[in-house]
Input
Amino acid sequence: MKVAVLGGGVIGVTAAYYLARDGHEVEVVERQRGPALETSFANAGEISPGYAAPWAGPGIPVKAIKWMLMKHSPLVIWPLLDPAMWRWGLAMLANCTEAAYARNKGRMVPLAEYSRDCLRELRAETGIAYDERTQGTLQLFRTQKQLDGIGKDVEVLQQYGVPFEVLDRDGFCRVEPALRHTQHKFVGALRLPGDETGDCHLFTARLAEMAAALGVRFRYGTTIRRVRYGAGQVEGVDTDQGPVAADRYVMALGSHSTPALRGSGIRLPVYPVKGYSITVPITDPDGAPESTIMDETHKVAVTRLGDRIRVGGTAELAGYDLTLREARRHTLEHVVTDLFPRGGDVARAEFWCGLRPMTPDGTPIVGATHQANLLLATGHGTLGWTMAAGTGRVLADLVSGREPAVPVEGLAIGRYARG
Ligand SMILES: Cc1cc2nc3c(=O)[nH]c(=O)nc-3n(C[C@H](O)[C@H](O)[C@H](O)COP(=O)(O)OP(=O)(O)OC[C@H]3O[C@@H](n4cnc5c(N)ncnc54)[C@H](O)[C@@H]3O)c2cc1C
Output
């Protein structure tokens, strides 16, 4: 089958790789000069099935107000006159119930865990290297109240059989020795030893090379202007480099999938949620993190990627705007120097932002649509790197007519039609 994958981020490239491995003729259409140069470029680097959960949950509306009032706020909402943003916000609020949280998490966890397993398999099969580490992640608490409040999270981890450890100061310094200099700022930590880390851009670039070796054609520097929707199916794609035609189309345009679906009869509830990162060169490896540390107070993740520290966070609702705001940089610098004052040189850090393709229920949208030859692979929000390999594999299964290894009913766009 000829398959056109629209978008060459981590989701599009993993899908292309698995589709090619199944023997399909695959073409990837990507506007940038290489793979993973937009949202998949400099994310926080966590492969975290242990934290696979929707943002929308009980108590979030009250917490969101508190976050917005903080000095180093993890949440910023620009009062835009954008009906799509407010529709998305209301739909997210509707998902803040116990029942919706349990349903959404129940859809996310199997895909995230499957994805981590697919990634392990992929590493074993191909030897792909991407500054990866398999040392788990650590959530650090600054107050006793935060630590006392983890009961619910722990219950959920137990329910899904996710291994975890609750650690005191000695315990977290054993897994992250550089924290011994700043341990007094924290009361304890929750460790998820099954989580992994790695550079999403490096992974995607290397997998794209492997996919090309399997015959995938990458059309970089090619901007999709319009997807032509006919009577119940996609008729073709118009790009600035000419038309693209295929038997099947996989839409993996991240946040840009929403405008690309105009005219299809599919109303995609995906809205961009901007996040920022800095990448800091390590100056003293003994003062740097070993794996990922999540500072629960600021909702900032600090990850070791080879000889760099990636610091990522902030949720900003600002439409498709990609302005780099200095205030966000200060927050990220503050957290990394507060945790690892000797680790790296923040003055030489690279500052970046990207648009998380967020659904209101936190669950990605993966699977068939009522357009007979169109599949969606978008809406991965905060967890696109975590869920990429599994998503790619599920898509290849669906195109090849195999039953995917995880339940896909709750992942397809059809779940919104049923409300
Ligand atoms: C600050 C931050 C931290 C994050 N941390 C983590 C983390 O630790 N762990 C995790 O799992 N996830 C994390 N994420 C989320 C993760 O990065 C995303 O979910 C993931 O990158 C989405 O991948 P994608 O392929 O769907 O989208 P993208 O990477 O955006 O890919 C879409 C591609 O489509 C292309 N495109 C768009 N429009 C067109 C067009 N008209 N024509 C041609 N091409 C087009 C774009 O150029 C782009 O390459 C983070 C995100 C941010 C912003």
